[in-house]
Recover the amino acids of this structure.
């Protein structure tokens, strides 16, 4: 199953590059850069870690604070 996922990522990456090149050819470099930025932001939004958002690793959570007082 991982092999299929790797092939899918390669195909989708190639399709994104081809679409960006086509937009650059038809609409210009600024449109291609804008489209690439939108694709990148969509990728970052889809792969963002929702479980642990922006928490520092050296901070203690509510359960660990009570244990550290001992």
């Amino acid at each position: 199953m991982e092999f299929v996922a790797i092939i899918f990522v390669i195909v989708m990456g190639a399709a994104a590059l081809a679409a960006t090149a086509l937009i650059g050819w038809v609409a210009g470099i600024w449109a291609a850069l804008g489209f690439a930025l939108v694709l990148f932001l969509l990728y970052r939004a889809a792969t963002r870690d929702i479980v642990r958002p922006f928490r520092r690793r050296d901070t203690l959570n509510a359960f660990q604070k009570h244990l550290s007082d001992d």
